[in-house]
Amino acid sequence: MLKKLDSVEEFNQLVEKESKFFLLKHSLTCPISHAAYKEYEKYADEHQDIPTYYLAVQESRPLSNEIAEKFQIKHESPQAILFSSGAASWNASHWKITNRALVNARTENQ
Fold first, then answer.
1. Euclidean distance between CA atoms 65 and 73, whole angstroms
2. Considering only CA atoms, which of 39, 27, 31 is closest in space to residue 77?
3. Does the predicted TM-score (pTM) go above 0.85?
4. Using CA atoms, how far apart are residues 1 and 44, in angstroms rounded to an integer?
5. Distance between CA atoms of 70 and 96, rounded to whole angstroms?
6. Which H, E and C letters describe 40-95, residue by residue?
7. Entry's InterPro entries (predicted)?
């Protein structure tokens, strides 16, 4: 199940609490982002053993910017990021966000 993040504080608590999780930066107005969200949602439904979160870029710009700066990942939207042990271990954007890519990212970053 996807859980929405809205603030830097929520994200920081998540990084401290979860050893591994996915995050999707999602645009509410972009059709490519909508397609990526559907792929991400499918992954989340099929792999409930790993936490999956998202943020809406238009609603959570400070959080989106904080993640880009803190983890040195150029901001893109849509953008999926795998966090592991407090670090960003994988990321993909736009059409590269697929159910298969998420499965492979997790397998390759055990």
1. 10
2. 27
3. yes
4. 6
5. 23
6. HHHHHHHCCCCCEEEEECCCCHHHHHHHHHHHCCCCCCCEEEEEECCEEEEEEEHH
7. BrxC (IPR022551), Thioredoxin-like_sf (IPR036249)
Both tokens of residue 38? 């559907």
Domain ranges of the chain: 2-108
pLDDT at 110: 82
Structure-token match 């979160």, residue found: 53
Span 2-108: which CATH code? 3.40.30.10
Residues shown for the chain: 110
pLDDT of residue 1: 81
Ranges under pLDDT 50 in the chain: none
Per the rule left: phi > 0, alpha: psi between -120 and 50, beta: everything else, 59 is alpha
